Amino acid sequence: MPTHTLKTVTGLQRPGADGYARVQPPTDRPLTLMAGDRLWVQAFAPDSHWVYGVAASGQERFWSLFVSEPGSQVAAGERFPLPQGQDIDAAGAGMDTLYVLSAPEPIAWLQGFESQDCEGLSGQPKPQNPTTLCEQLHALIWQAPARIRGQARQTPAELIRKRGVVTVFGSVAEHSGEGVVVVQTPFLQP
After folding, report:
1. pLDDT of residue 189
2. Phi and psi, residue 142, nearest 5°
3. CB 113 within 8 Å of CB 92
4. Is the pLDDT of residue 151 over 50?
5. Which of 6, 50, 163, 175 is 20 to 30 A from 99 (CA-CA)?
6. Closest CA to 11 of 162, 158, 145
């Protein structure tokens, strides 16, 4: 199976007196996600791949943010799976991790997935042969590269540009592999 790369740029806009303003990602910690923010995701993956966004709160509550089918790119290898951004409500503000997955085929266990509570799995070891939806979701922790911690390991911000719609700063996550490739973007809570 050939190796491929998944890169995401994740940014926020925060409401203010003059509408939404872009948030500059800090260099020493993840972005802080709050109710009222608008989330933007730019994904770079092979055109023939499926791209999924799964939000997690405390590794116990998971929900689908988006599914981007092959053919939905705006340019070769580039997609905006949330075409107008995602307004974050109080429940969504509990997201502490965004997992983005890229796969050459549809991921069967994510087809039709909307949300799942998986209490009791937090802190558990990696499932060897995940069979349940919760085990599959819990296994994402070990499929993604380690979270970025500290200034020395922070990836520089890049601009997310969608012509005529938005320009915001975003934090970068990137990983290469075979089959299903996963990256994660952490968020802090206020």
Report:
1. 86
2. -90, -10
3. no
4. no
5. 163
6. 158
Q: Among all chains, which residue has been given the structure tokens 């799942």? A: 116
pLDDT of residue 153: 40
Cα atoms found within 13 Å of the Cα of residue 24, Cβ hemisphere only: 3
pLDDT in tens, 14-25: 999 989 998 988
Residues 23 and 168 sit within 8 Å (Cβ to Cβ): yes
The per-residue pLDDT for range 53-105, each reduced to its tens digit, is: 999 998 889 999 999 999 888 888 889 999 889 999 999 999 999 999 999 99
Residues 184 and 99: beta-carbon distance below 8 Å: yes
Q: For 104-133, give the DSSP string.
A: SS--GGGTT--EEE-TT-TTPPPPSS--SH
- CA-nearest of 33, 39, 11 to 155 is 11
Q: How far from 90 is each of 11, 24, 49, 175, CA to CA, in Å?
A: 18, 22, 32, 30
- The residues with which 102 forms a beta bridge, in sequence order, are 51, 181
Q: How far is CA 135 from the centre of its chain?
A: 19
Q: How far apart are CA 171 and CA 116, in angstroms?
A: 27
Structure tokens at 190: 């206020």
